[in-house]
Amino acid sequence: MDVTPVLQVEKLCKSFEGSFWEKRKQVLFDVSFKVFPARATGFVGNNGSGKTTSLKSILEFIRRDSGEIKFFGEALSLKTKSRIGYLPERPYLYEFMTPMEFLNLHWRLCLPDVHGEFVVRAQEVLKQVNLFDSRNRRLRQFSKGMLQRIGLAQAILNRPDFLILDEPMSGLDPDGRIMVKDILKDELERGATIFFSSHLLQDMEELCRDLVVINDGKILYNGPLTQFMQSASSLELAFKQAKIKGTER
Ligand SMILES: Nc1ncnc2c1ncn2[C@@H]1O[C@H](COP(=O)(O)OP(=O)(O)OP(=O)(O)O)[C@@H](O)[C@H]1O
Ligand SMILES: [Mg+2]
Predict the structure, then answer these.
(1) What are the structural domains of the chain?
(2) Please, are residues 213 and 238 in contact by the beta-carbon 8 Å criterion?
(3) How far is the CA of 104 from the centre of ligand 1 (A)?
C-alpha cells in the first residue's frame, strides 16, 4: 500500500528506572506498527502490556530509549501536534471549572493561533458529546461518563486529523460506551483517523478496520482486523491464539 501512514512507529524501546535494589525494567521491546488514514485502528492488549507507555512515548510525554516515530511522514513538531487530538488515560480535569471554562483553557493552551471562533466551536462540540445542557455546571458535579465525554470534547475541539485516545470507553456503562462509540463514528465520518487503546475487544470489532495487538511489550499483530480473526470465531479467541503463537516464537 502506497499511502503515507498517519503514524509510523519503528523499533520503539522503553524502560523505566527500578527502585534502589531493582534493575531497570524494560516494558517496550522493538515496538513497530503503522496507522493508516481515515479509519479507526484499535490498540489491544491486556492490562500492563504497554499501551499507555507506547502512547506516551510516541507523543513524547515520556522519553523513549530508542526508536523512530513519524506522524504524517514527519517527526513530531508544533505543526504536527496541531493536527493531533489526545485523550490521556487519566485526564486531569479541573473540577472547579465548567465545561466551557475547561474547553476555553485547552483552546488557549493548545490553539494560540486560532481566534474568535471559540464559543461557536465549544458549543458545537458540547452538543456532539451531549453535554450542552450541562455547559455551566462545575465538573465536580459530573458523573464518570460525563467526565469521559468532556475529556473527549477537549480532544476533538481543534477538529484534529488524528485522534489518539487511551481507553476512551473505560469504566463506562453500556449507554456511555454507545455514546462514546457514536462520537467516534461521527469523527470517522468527518474523515478523522482514530487510534485508540482498549483491553475490551468488543469495542474494537464494531469500530476498527485495523488492529495493533500488543502483549508484554511486544507487537503480536498489525493489520486488518478481519485477517486477524480469520482463523478464529471471535476476536477474543484470535487474541488468545496470537498470544500462544507469540510465546512459541
Ligand atoms: N512510570 C513508571 N515506572 C515504572 N514502571 C512503569 C511506569 N509506567 C508504567 N510502568 C510499567 O510498564 C508496564 C506497562 O504499563 P502500561 O501502563 O503501559 O500498560 P497498559 O497496557 O496501558 O495497561 P492498562 O490496560 O492497565 O492501562 C507495566 O508493567 C507498568 O507497571
Ligand atoms: Mg493503560
Answers:
(1) 7-248 (3.40.50.300)
(2) no
(3) 31
